[in-house]
Specification:
This protein is α/β, with parallel strands linked by helices. The protein contains 10 helices and 9 strands. The chain has one domain (11-344): Aminopeptidase. Strand 1 (25-31) and strand 2 form a beta hairpin.
């Protein structure tokens, strides 16, 4: 399948986009394990939250406002979108770069205007990380899995063991860091072999992980979305484990909102709603992953979004469908963040 003109998601595309930013603020978030640039781009007015305590201590005192008081009239709802925690999951990077071009020039790389999404992001503090795992991204010599076969997908996603066999999912997580156990290091991992989704979050091994957790602590985004690719899955949220029930209910509510929006645009089966509460009663327990860690740092929603990747296998979505799904997701998330502010003002939530 030919990669369409709007599909820009390489490290060079990120550098070119960053160089042309004039309306936003660009920050070098950190350097990757391999010395590559990890950028954060910001739009809108930021909040300067005075932390009187960390989140754990504030909840121990019985009031999260000691950590972050978001009930003030001038509080700006904040959304953080993170692309390519796994470097070969390009789809979120493509969508973020198109969003940046839309904000900067009035059109995306398709050459299309989108007043709906620009209107939705008004009065939002928007934080964008196009590619959290630049090392993994650099390991993939093409820009999409669109039309690729399963073996190519697995090879460049998770790599190969010493005997040449594919590091299939989920056994690719059985060795961590995986470097030293593989012949080819797939794009899941940074150059130290760390899968950022499963870092040791109490003693982070990766600078990329540390930088993201520090950002979540400092800026306390109301909604953080980790943009992943899940083969040819029907796009969906994965509920965050080990967080309070009310946060999972909020994730479920946003999922319903996204589902309704996709159907309103004529995409009946393009988004699958997650369960209202994740199952936690089986052994072995689910992993405490990067989404869990981000939520525990600041007490807010952090969601894993799994995108279809357009492989030449069952349930293949077109690149246009993949991109449109992200635009709907972004639009509804911006709206949802502003609704959270209104509900806080009405004392419905903290």
């Amino acid at each position: 399948m030919e990669t369409p003109v709007f599909w820009k998601g390489s490290l060079d595309d990120i550098e070119n986009t960053v160089r042309n930013i004039k309306k936003g603020k660009v920050k070098l978030l950190c350097k990757s394990a391999g010395g590559r640039n990890i950028y954060m781009i910001e739009y809108g007015e930021r909040n300067y939250l005075h932390h009187e305590a960390n989140y754990s201590s504030a909840t121990g005192a019985g009031n999260p406002k000691h950590y972050a008081d978001k009930t003030q009239a001038d509080y700006i709802p904040t959304v953080l979108l993170v692309g390519a925690t796994h470097g070969g999951e390009f789809e979120g990077t493509v969508a973020i770069l198109n969003l940046i071009n839309l904000i900067e020039t009035g059109v995306d790389f398709f050459g299309r205007e989108n007043d709906e999404i620009l209107s939705a992001m008004e009065n939002i503090n928007l934080l964008l990380i196009p590619c959290l795992n630049a090392d993994g991204r650099a390991r993939v010599p093409f820009d999409a899995f669109l039309g690729k076969d399963y073996k190519t997908f697995r090879y460049y996603s998770q790599g190969t063991w010493k005997d040449g066999g594919l590091c299939e999912y989920p056994n690719c997580k059985a060795k961590h860091p995986i470097k030293g156990h593989v012949d080819f290091l797939g794009s899941y991992f940074n150059d130290d072999g760390v899968n950022l989704m499963h870092d040791n979050f109490f003693f982070p091994m990766a600078e990329e992980t540390k930088a993201l957790l520090l950002l979540c602590d400092e800026r306390v985004p109301d909604v953080t979305i980790l943009l992943h690719g899940g083969g040819n899955t029907t796009p969906c949220f994965i509920q965050t484990k080990y967080v309070p029930t009310y946060l999972n209910h909020e994730i479920y509510n946003l999922a319903l909102q996204v589902k309704n929006a996709t159907e309103a645009k004529g995409y009946k089966d393009m988004f699958r709603v997650c369960e209202k509460e994740p199952s936690m009663d089986k052994y072995p327990p689910p992993s405490f992953n990067l989404a869990s860690a981000c939520s525990h740092i600041n007490g807010e929603m952090c969601i894993v979004f799994e995108s279809n990747q357009g492989l030449a296998i069952k349930n293949q979505h077109t690149p246009e469908q993949i991109y449109e799904m992200h635009l709907i997701l972004f639009t509804e998330t911006f709206k949802f963040a502003k609704e959270l502010k209104l509900r806080r003002k009405q004392n419905v939530i903290n």
